[in-house]
Amino acid sequence: MNALIFIVDSVLKLAVYAFLLRLLLQLTRGDFRNALSQAIVKLTNWLVLPLRRLLPPLGKVDTASLVAVLLVQYAAVGILFAMSTGVLMPVTTLLWVGARQLVLSTLQLYTVAIIVYALLSLVSPGTYSPAAAFLGSLCEPVLRPVRQLLPPVAGLDFSPLVVILGLQAIKILIQ
What we know:
Elements: H1 2-27, H2 35-54, H3 63-85, H4 91-123, H5 130-149, H6 159-174
Helix pairs in contact: 1-2, 1-3, 2-3, 3-4, 4-5, 4-6, 5-6
């Protein structure tokens, strides 16, 4: 049973991250012509497109993508709780735990994305790759304000380190 829970948990987390990436790319005005962005769109269209017919966008926020992320997150929390305990989670608890998990997943996603983005900039600076462009569109809006406050020192950019420390501090506060 533990192996089954692990597999279901892994698949559901990947689904949450895919929908979360779609939403974050829209919020950060990411390049949807990128091959990785196209993959995310194709993986998530099955839920976002039907929701888009029902939910109009609110300003710059695609409500269909936002609702899709929430639905997948709440489904993941509910399914895993039911598999682990054999009972359904109360709705208020589900809403609270699901929202908390979504915030923690967002912080974790950004932490990993910034680490990979920083490593790519060290390994192959100035070269184009779809992964670097994808991560750049996701990470630059978060890194840019810190770069304005903390300029490079001796050619080294410490903004990823500062942002990761801030993300981890927020994560600790939430947990």
